[in-house]
Structure formats: C-alpha cells, structure tokens
C-alpha cells in the first residue's frame, strides 16, 4: 500500500508552483483483485490551477481496454477528493460514476468546502475509504495549504544569506553579494514556487530589487513591500507594474500615488498584514527582507521555515566599518547541503498547535 501512496505523493510534487491556491495532489489507480499481483493502470496529478484535478487525470489515463477493471481497483489519492463544484466538477462524483472499488488517502481536506464531505459521499455510494496513510508526508507536501486553512495566514519562509562570520550586509548603502551564482539561481526557483515575496523599506530602497524569476522559468510571485511611512521612491523597480505588487503602510489618511498593478493597503501590524494576505488567498510568502523585517517575524513567532545560506566570505567590521549582524537561527534542523560553494541549512518551526 505504501509504495503506491509514495508514488502518488511523488506525482503530486510535479504541480509545485503551478496549482496554488489549490493543493498539490497526485493519484495512482491500482488494479488489485484478490489473489493477483497488483498493477498500476492509471496515474495523474493536478498540473495547473483551473485545470483537471489529479483523480480526473488519472482516470483519463486508464487505457480504454482497462476501464472495466475500475470496480476492482483502488485509487490512491494524496488528499480527500473534492465534493463541490469549483473550476472543476467534484472528483468524488467522478470516482462514484466510474465505480472505483476503493479509495485510500493521506489526509482529510481542511477546506471547509470539503472537510470530510468527499469521504462521506464515497462511503454513501458504497465505496470503501481508508485514510491516514503516510499522513505526515502528505501534510509536509501541502504545508502551505494546511497552514492557510488551519492558522488563517500564509506559510512563511524566512530566507537570508550570511557570511562565515555571521553578517547579513552593511550599512554603507552598498549591496553586498554574499552567495554564488548557483545559490542565486536556486532562490529564483523558490520564488516561482511561492505565491508572494516580501521585502521591507530598507531592502527596497538600498537594493532596488525586481523580485522576479528571471533566473528560472516559472511564474513571478506577488511582490509585497512593507513601507510604513510611504517613503519609497516611486521610480523603484517595485513600482514598474510588471507584476502584482502590494504595499502595506501605516499612513491612514495619506493617499498614495497610483501605479498600474500596485495595491496600497493600510495595516496596523504584521499580524494585520498577514490577515490581509490570507483574505487575498496568498498561501505562502518568501521573506527576503533585511535583518529588521526578518527579526520582526522571528520575534512574533510568525514563521514556518528558515532557509539560511552561509558563504565562505568574511564581512567583519574591520572591512566595512558597520556590518549588519544576521538573525539568530531557531527551530529544528531539517536539512543541510552544499549549493555550489555555499552551505544551505533549513530549519522548521514546530510551535505547539
């Protein structure tokens, strides 16, 4: 059983960066009559938001000569089949229509529009349902989706690069290139996988970033800028209208300059900004801000991952006069690897729910 669910989980990852705000879902259909060797007769995954779901793609992949085998087959699905009409019809209804014999799932769907109703439909139609298979791996796969519905905020990834002596940059207004080209390309891939990317006022002003995916094929994230005083120069790349941009500020009575594709939103706190992003269906945010913005997330406990690059270079005060200390890492070590000549360490936050 586990081998087929692992295959479904593997297929689900192929939708990464393409299906949000939907979850990544994979489906494997296995013909497994009693006393015979089970064999896969269909596979599919949710490939792109608005298009067919995993179950529909898996059933469509079954050879016409094998469709009569579906009543003696098991559909291994990584998430509860949907039970409502959205951009696609309900997958639970399709499984019932095709008389699939059994359904095995990793996780219940936390979306209130589903939340057990998919399983209830299947059982009411006489289809055997088993849940909780490799559930922890399933939750990890769709951590963004579960965080969005269970904690009512986006999944937060804090990313920074630091030198071997623990500095993140300098205060002399000169950007410092800490990591190598391979690490930079990886960051652009990460950007393509998340809904939003956030920076603070200082990073926007000093680095003038574009926050796009020019080094990796993929969609650009929504740019999110914390500019409490609305002090940023309107000629920065962030205001060029090339991709959706949200500016959070605290100037309640000040009317900002209008820009195409830029939304200005009054906010009272970091929590308030995350609530607003939740309302806008932004499920995940890669925070690439400076030390102050990163520290604000850390102190509030509002983060899920830290992705920290460490280079071999030194950036001590002797060299630049006033180097900026990197945040102190927290959480549980998840992985460590070399990316070119830079070390990448990932930490996970596991607060009590």
From TrEMBL:
<feature type="binding site">
    <location>
        <position position="53"/>
    </location>
    <ligand>
        <name>Zn(2+)</name>
    </ligand>
</feature>
<comment type="similarity">
    <text>In the C-terminal section; belongs to the HTP reductase family.</text>
</comment>
<dbReference type="InterPro" id="IPR002734">
    <property type="entry name" value="RibDG_C"/>
</dbReference>
<comment type="pathway">
    <text>Cofactor biosynthesis; riboflavin biosynthesis; 5-amino-6-(D-ribitylamino)uracil from GTP: step 3/4.</text>
</comment>
<keyword id="KW-0479">Metal-binding</keyword>
<comment type="similarity">
    <text>In the N-terminal section; belongs to the cytidine and deoxycytidylate deaminase family.</text>
</comment>
<dbReference type="InterPro" id="IPR024072">
    <property type="entry name" value="DHFR-like_dom_sf"/>
</dbReference>
<comment type="function">
    <text>Converts 2,5-diamino-6-(ribosylamino)-4(3h)-pyrimidinone 5'-phosphate into 5-amino-6-(ribosylamino)-2,4(1h,3h)-pyrimidinedione 5'-phosphate.</text>
</comment>
<feature type="binding site">
    <location>
        <position position="288"/>
    </location>
    <ligand>
        <name>substrate</name>
    </ligand>
</feature>
<dbReference type="InterPro" id="IPR004794">
    <property type="entry name" value="Eubact_RibD"/>
</dbReference>
<feature type="binding site">
    <location>
        <position position="207"/>
    </location>
    <ligand>
        <name>NADP(+)</name>
    </ligand>
</feature>
<feature type="domain" description="CMP/dCMP-type deaminase">
    <location>
        <begin position="1"/>
        <end position="130"/>
    </location>
</feature>
<feature type="binding site">
    <location>
        <position position="82"/>
    </location>
    <ligand>
        <name>Zn(2+)</name>
    </ligand>
</feature>
<feature type="binding site">
    <location>
        <position position="203"/>
    </location>
    <ligand>
        <name>substrate</name>
    </ligand>
</feature>
<dbReference type="GO" id="GO:0008270">
    <property type="term" value="F:zinc ion binding"/>
</dbReference>
<feature type="binding site">
    <location>
        <position position="161"/>
    </location>
    <ligand>
        <name>NADP(+)</name>
    </ligand>
</feature>
<dbReference type="InterPro" id="IPR016192">
    <property type="entry name" value="APOBEC/CMP_deaminase_Zn-bd"/>
</dbReference>
<dbReference type="Pfam" id="PF01872">
    <property type="entry name" value="RibD_C"/>
</dbReference>
<dbReference type="GO" id="GO:0009231">
    <property type="term" value="P:riboflavin biosynthetic process"/>
</dbReference>
<keyword id="KW-0378">Hydrolase</keyword>
<dbReference type="GO" id="GO:0008703">
    <property type="term" value="F:5-amino-6-(5-phosphoribosylamino)uracil reductase activity"/>
</dbReference>
<keyword id="KW-0686">Riboflavin biosynthesis</keyword>
<dbReference type="InterPro" id="IPR002125">
    <property type="entry name" value="CMP_dCMP_dom"/>
</dbReference>
<feature type="binding site">
    <location>
        <position position="191"/>
    </location>
    <ligand>
        <name>substrate</name>
    </ligand>
</feature>
<dbReference type="Pfam" id="PF00383">
    <property type="entry name" value="dCMP_cyt_deam_1"/>
</dbReference>
<keyword id="KW-0560">Oxidoreductase</keyword>
<feature type="binding site">
    <location>
        <position position="211"/>
    </location>
    <ligand>
        <name>substrate</name>
    </ligand>
</feature>
<dbReference type="InterPro" id="IPR050765">
    <property type="entry name" value="Riboflavin_Biosynth_HTPR"/>
</dbReference>
<protein>
    <recommendedName>
        <fullName>Riboflavin biosynthesis protein RibD</fullName>
        <ecNumber>3.5.4.26</ecNumber>
        <ecNumber>1.1.1.193</ecNumber>
    </recommendedName>
</protein>
<keyword id="KW-0862">Zinc</keyword>
<comment type="pathway">
    <text>Cofactor biosynthesis; riboflavin biosynthesis; 5-amino-6-(D-ribitylamino)uracil from GTP: step 2/4.</text>
</comment>
<feature type="binding site">
    <location>
        <position position="91"/>
    </location>
    <ligand>
        <name>Zn(2+)</name>
    </ligand>
</feature>
<dbReference type="GO" id="GO:0008835">
    <property type="term" value="F:diaminohydroxyphosphoribosylaminopyrimidine deaminase activity"/>
</dbReference>
<keyword id="KW-0511">Multifunctional enzyme</keyword>
<keyword id="KW-0521">NADP</keyword>
<dbReference type="InterPro" id="IPR016193">
    <property type="entry name" value="Cytidine_deaminase-like"/>
</dbReference>
<feature type="binding site">
    <location>
        <position position="214"/>
    </location>
    <ligand>
        <name>substrate</name>
    </ligand>
</feature>
<feature type="binding site">
    <location>
        <begin position="290"/>
        <end position="296"/>
    </location>
    <ligand>
        <name>NADP(+)</name>
    </ligand>
</feature>
<feature type="active site" description="Proton donor">
    <location>
        <position position="55"/>
    </location>
</feature>
């Amino acid at each position: 059983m586990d081998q087929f669910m692992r295959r479904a989980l593997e297929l689900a990852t192929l939708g990464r960066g393409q299906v949000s705000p939907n979850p990544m879902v994979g489906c494997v259909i296995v013909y497994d009559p009693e006393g015979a060797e089970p064999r896969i007769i269909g596979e599919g995954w949710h490939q792109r938001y608005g298009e067919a779901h995993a179950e529909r793609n898996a059933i469509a992949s079954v050879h016409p000569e094998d469709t009569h085998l579906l009543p003696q087959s098991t559909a291994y699905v990584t998430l509860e089949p949907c039970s409502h009409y959205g951009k696609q019809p309900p997958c639970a209804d399709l499984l019932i229509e095709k008389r699939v014999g059994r359904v095995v799932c990793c996780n219940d769907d936390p979306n209130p529009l589903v939340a057990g109703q998919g399983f209830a439909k299947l059982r009411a139609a006489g289809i055997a349902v088993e849940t909780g298979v490799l559930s922890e791996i399933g939750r990890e796969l769709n951590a963004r989706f579960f965080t969005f519905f269970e904690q009512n905020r986006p999944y937060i990834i804090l990313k920074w690069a630091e030198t071997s002596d623990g500095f993140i940059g300098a205060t002399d207004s000169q950007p410092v290139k800490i990591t190598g080209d391979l690490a930079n390309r990886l960051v652009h891939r990460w950007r393509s996988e998340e809904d939003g990317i956030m920076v603070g006022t200082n990073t926007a002003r000093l680095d003038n970033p574009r926050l796009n995916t020019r080094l990796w094929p993929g969609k650009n994230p929504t740019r999110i800028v914390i500019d409490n005083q609305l002090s940023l120069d309107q000629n920065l790349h962030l205001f060029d209208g090339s991709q959706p941009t949200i500016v959070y500020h605290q100037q309640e009575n000040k009317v900002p300059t209008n820009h195409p594709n830029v939304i200005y939103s009054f906010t009272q706190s970091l929590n308030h900004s995350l609530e607003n992003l939740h309302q806008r269906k932004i499920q995940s945010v890669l925070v690439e801000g400076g030390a102050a913005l990163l520290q604000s997330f850390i102190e509030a406990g509002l983060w899920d991952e830290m992705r920290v690059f460490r280079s071999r270079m030194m950036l001590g005060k002797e060299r630049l006069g006033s180097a900026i200390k990197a945040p102190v890492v927290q959480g549980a070590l998840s992985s460590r690897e070399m990316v070119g000549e830079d070390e990448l360490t990932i930490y996970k936050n596991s607060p009590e729910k």
